[in-house]
Description:
alpha/beta; 326 residues
Amino acid sequence: MTRGILSRAPHRIAILGAALASAVASVALSSTASAQGGAQPATARDPRNMGGGTCSANPYNCVDAVNPLRAPDTVWMEEMTWMDVRDAMKAGKTTAIIATGGMEPNGPWLVTGKHNYVLHTNCDAIARKLGNALCAPIVKFVPEGNISPASGHMVSPGTISMREETFRMLLTDLVASLKAHGFTKIILIGDSGGNQAGQRWLADSVTKIWQGTPIVAHIQEYYDYASVAKHMEQFGINQTVAEGLHDDAEISLNMFIDDPKSIRYDERAKAKLLTINGVSLADRKKATAWAKQIVEFRTKVTIEAIDKATANKGTLPAPPRRTGGN
């Protein structure tokens, strides 16, 4: 994953800081005005209205409406109704996880949404293990290189890039939205190298502005494929060949457990091409067991880091730079 698109305009980050402060202040002022009966639209909003309609038109649009259906077995906000989210938060699920992935080239086998497939499995596992968390929709578009002239991953078809300042302001609005709804802890994880700086910047910035209420933390420990590779050696994954692809056994397996089609598993099996860096994935039972161990390990590491960041009331100091990662 490349760095951002700001190599030609580093001064934009300073401008972003001012924009962030303005955006956060705007949210705060809006909330204060509503709470204190400040400037209102021509027709004041009925505080009972919720759910996309008016309480007077249908009781299901009332803030205290009883959910007519059983809560779904999901941790994904986009798979829940507004009532499901409301009731989950009332039950204690007040941690929100924002996961950022990307659209980029990954050799001949892996689909361009590689990181998004990985995050679909991992965010789900992390939220369920935490027991008090929900996952926001995955942010699928991130900085991938200059758009014009093309650089980094943008030289390959299928890549979708985003300016660094756009990415950071998108995260700002996501975090502010979750804060407005009452989430007390907002966690950012990124599955790609180019996502890390923007997440840290946003988390550190709002931590200073909001002073830890809510806690907003970038969990850098999540993105540590070198540790994943080291951990998996004990289970027999020894990558003895460097194929030079934007791929490795750990990330392929992490995708496989989410959707085998994302690594073209059946087609590669038929063509006898189910290896990566000298590791065979042809034994489906073994590959599934390996994949589960990868998800379990990454979940454990991430939750331990979330606990430490919570105690720190924000992102931990940056760890020593490690090699490895996609």
